[in-house]
């Protein structure tokens, strides 16, 4: 049974990889990929339900089945992680679909601060309206807070040396940007500000600001 689950996970992972990149056919291609992703999600959800039933049966079995139970539980945990990623991808497609219907040429689709082996920021940019050309530009991120009670604002170069000159972007539909955050231990963050500066004439610029608690997860 574990082998079957592994095959399902591999197939589903390939589907997710395809779903993360839009082709040159624009929103129609995105809609097709979205539909495929939903079908794959339903398939994995069915496998998830079947595996949960199997785990329940094994939990009530003899000691001889304990190893099989452990393997099934591990596979279930992996499947739950895949389901979580699938739901995130579906939400991203939904938001991109909404942005395509808006008049915004350049938009900040999503921004999160996550703990993944360290503190990281993750930014999703997209374009909407009737704009179909590639947009290029840079992103600046600043984080305001306090150090020993005194107000302090950290620029991108202060907490992400790798992108000290700003985050560069170039995309036609959407792009994911990310980086690591390293700051003084005494720093207590309060707000985050993002400035998206387009180098493409007519694309416009974007500025967003959030309270730290609204974008920090985990």
- Principal-axes geometry comes out as flat
Main beta-sheet strand count, sense and barrel state: 5 strands, antiparallel
C-alpha termini separation: 33 Å
Number of helices: 5
**What count of structural domains?**
2
Instruction: Tell how many strands the DSSP assignment holds.
Output: 8
The rounded Rg comes to: 21 Å
User: Which regions contain 5 or more consecutive residues with pLDDT less than 50?
Assistant: 1-25
The string of secondary-structure elements, in order, is HHHEEEEHEEEEH
Strand content: 25-35%
Percentage of residues assigned to helices: 40-55%
CATH topology of the largest domain: Immunoglobulin-like
Please tell me the overall pLDDT.
75
CATH architecture of the largest domain: Sandwich
User: Can you tell me the CATH class of the largest domain?
Assistant: Mainly Beta
- Give me the secondary-structure category: alpha+beta
Structure description:
The protein has 218 residues and is an alpha+beta fold. The chain has two domains: 2-101; 107-215, Immunoglobulin-like (Sandwich), CATH 2.60.40. It is built from five helices and eight strands. The strands form two sheets. Strands 3, 4, 5, 7 and 8 form a five-stranded antiparallel β-sheet that branches. Strands 1-2-6 form a three-stranded antiparallel β-sheet, covered by helices on one side. Helix 2 runs antiparallel to helix 3. The longest helix has 36 residues, at 66-101. The two termini are 33 Å apart. The model is unreliable at 1-25 (pLDDT under 50).
